[in-house]
Amino acid sequence: MKPDSIVYTDSFKSYNALDVSEFTHYRINHSKTFVNDKNHINGIENFWNQAKRHLRKFNGVPKEHFHLYLKECEWRFNHSDPKSQLLQLKQWVKQGLN
């Protein structure tokens, strides 16, 4: 992470380690408020829920390829419409044939 990055987390104790890093760390305490202005962590929680659900289908993935599986989850999350996914895949195949 770059030193000028901003990170939003909930109040989970494991995130205490982030307080000593060189970036800005904001916590959102769900027991007091769920959203602070426009800042919330629902998007990343949604992503991880979808990623875990997708990765569970494989009953484990090789450690050395985990980043590729995670990248696929990211792509599926950002292109959630099946028609959009199909269009993107067709474009990639077409580019690969040229």
UniProtKB/TrEMBL annotation:
InterPro entries: IS1016-like_transposase, Tnp_ISXO2-like. Pfam families: DDE_Tnp_IS1595. Residues 2-78 form the ISXO2-like transposase domain. Coiled coil: none annotated. NCBIfam families: transpos_IS1595. This is ISXO2-like transposase domain-containing protein. The lineage of its organism: Bacteria, Pseudomonadati, Pseudomonadota, Gammaproteobacteria, Moraxellales.
